[in-house]
Amino acid sequence: MIAPSTPPLLIAEGLHTYYGDSHILHGVDLHIEPGETVSLMGRNGMGKTTTLRSIIGLTPPREGSITIRGKDASRLSTHQIIRQGIAFVPEDRGIFPNLSVLENLNMAARKGPTGRDEWTLERVLELFPRLGERLTNMGNQLSGGEQQMLTIARALMTNPDLIILDEATEGLAPLIRLEIWVVIRHIKSTGIATIIVDKDINALLPICDRNYILNKGEVVYHGKSRELLENPELHKQFLGV
Amino acid sequence: MHTVTRPIIIFLCICLVMLLLFPAVGSPFYTELVTRIMILSIFTISLDLLIGFTGLVSFGHAAFFGIGAYLLAILFNDVEHINYWWSLTLTLSMTGMAALVIGWLSIRTSGIYFIMLTLAFAQMCFYFFFESPHFGGDDGIFLMNKPEIMLGSRQLVDLENEHHYYYFVLAWLVGVYLFLSMILRAPFGHVLIAIKANEQRVRALGYSTPHYKLVSFVIAGTIAGLAGFLEAAHTSFVTPAYLGWHESGMAIMMVILGGMGTLFGPVIGTFIVVLLQDFLPGFTEHWKLIMGGIIIGVVLFLPNGVAGLIYSLTNRLSSKSKEAGREHV
């Protein structure tokens, strides 16, 4: 007997997104399976962040569809999409500066929509012991690295099935970057699917199962990391490295 | 700023003791003045929930103050024995309903549009009462009797007695402060504080921010209605000026002057403004110039208001005492 196949966790099809009159995404297609780690690459201004914002409805696409676990989510608002088990780590480290570290974390605490509940405050603080030492500090009293840790920790507190990381290590000190990549590997090992946008290709490719390259709002490449590593022409053409 | 430190708690306790003792030392005139200041403080604290914690700058908050006052005066105008419990419940629930309707329409906008919409609603209410002869028109309306606080056949508080009324309002002020402090410490309050910092981030955490903003608006409107109820019961008179943009503007000024996002700051701001309004005219006829200068000075040199100054002074004092303690060891 063949087991019924589980639908992809997320499918984005034909996304066309605009900022005012500017047409930014030109029919972006993207899908992610449960537990999969996928990268979204491309030069600056190619539509990576817009793609992520379109997926979670912060910048709703004018055309195209979003499907989460086989159900149409195109008409859902941001908070409804997020409640489907998606956590978003924005590029500007979206902490709340006027709340303490503990309040930032507790605000996000909830069970996942599929019943996932392993990410408790204790477990998150085990992963980020530095935050445990600063629980009563306000968000604006943290260093950049600590703020990024807090944002990822807060995302985990929602017990998501998919974490979207936009510029996960941008602007961080090299040692902190290494720490963040260790955390991302750990998240992958727990079976949480991840979409990562980052410029550090050398760190990104070994972690990711599949990769998308965006150029001028279109997906110009989609494939496994090994294929991409073996094709330096693509690096030069679309990533500028 | 929303965190209440131990030195601030001590400061607030000292203020409370001073307020408790005031009727024993103050003249009847000033006891009545402080009663009015405390009523206005309940109004400005409610506005702080919107401006200081939720990030909603309402320029029409006086509408709810006025609606609360008018409801008591209209519904119980010719009632000989006004039941306090019944009149309060009716007034607050109807003010809450008005806040729900106005809030539901207003929170769809943000920034300057929200300010203009709340102002427009308040002005609509103002002109409705101003041009309604049935409700006293521009002359206002009298309340013939004060509510009676009865428990069975026993009168708990005599609102005709100035001292009783003073302590009654003080109890409400403390109650409203504690109620809002409790709300702001709860997860609901954290969401409001986070909305003020960045609404989009809160949505990206899975919260429906319009619902939270609406609940905040209704709570603030209902508390403003309570202040209006207390004011009408205090003065036995209600005028359309209660709902005007001038009242809303003064309340915003009191909140900013005292310190937004602190809850106790607006109380300080209310005391400063009303006492200046009382004292300054005795010195010069151009007292409004002096008052304007004081307000400009506070805004320029104390960006977090007087409460911000109190925070920094108490922090400095507590860190000095800690250092002294370490040296002693």
Task: Describe it.
The complex is a heterodimer of chains A (241) and B (329). Chain A contains ten helices and ten strands. Chain A has helices at residues 48-55, 78-82, 101-108, 121-127, 129-132, 144-157, 174-189, 201-207, 225-229, 232-239, and strands spanning 10-19, 22-32, 37-41, 63-68, 71-72, 86-89, 162-166, 193-197, 210-215, 218-224. In chain A, the strands form two sheets. A six-stranded mixed beta sheet of chain A has the order 6-7-8-3-9-10, sandwiched between helices. Chain A has a four-stranded antiparallel beta sheet with strand order 2-1-4-5, with helices on one face. In chain A, α3 runs parallel beside α6 (144-157) and α4 (121-127) runs antiparallel to α6 (144-157). The longest helix of chain A has 16 residues, at 174-189. Chain A is globular. The mean pLDDT of chain A is 91. By secondary structure, chain B is mainly alpha-helical. Chain B has a domain at 33-242. Helices cover 73% and strands 5% of the residues of chain B. Chain B contains 13 helices and five strands. Chain B has helices spanning 6-25, 28-54, 62-75, 84-106, 111-130, 162-185, 187-197, 199-203, 209-235, 245-258, 264-279, 287-301, 305-328, and strands at residues 82-83, 141-142, 147-151, 154-157, 237-238. In chain B, strands 1-3-4 form a three-stranded mixed beta sheet. A two-stranded antiparallel sheet of chain B has the order 2-5. Chain B is globular, with a radius of gyration of 20 Å. The model of chain B has no long low-confidence stretch (mean pLDDT 93). The interface between A and B is medium-sized, with 23 and 21 residues.
Work out the number of β strands of chain B: 5
Structural class based on helices, strands and sheet pairing of chain A: alpha/beta
For the largest interface in this structure, which chains are involved and how many residues does each contribute? A-B, 23 and 21 residues
How much beta of chain A, percentage-wise? 25-35%
Total individual domains of chain A: 1
CATH homology superfamily name of chain A: P-loop containing nucleotide triphosphate hydrolases
CATH architecture of chain A: 3-Layer(aba) Sandwich
What is the mean predicted local confidence, pLDDT of chain A? 91
Report on the biggest sheet of chain B.
3 strands, mixed
Choose one word for the global shape of chain A. globular
Task: Give the class of chain B from helix and strand content and strand pairing.
Answer: mainly alpha
Tell me the Rg of chain A in angstroms. 18 Å
Task: Give the CATH level 1 class of chain A.
Answer: Alpha Beta
Largest sheet, spatial ordering of strands of chain B: 1-3-4
Cα(first) to Cα(last) distance of chain B is 32 Å
Give the low-pLDDT segments of chain B. none
Low-confidence stretches of chain A: none
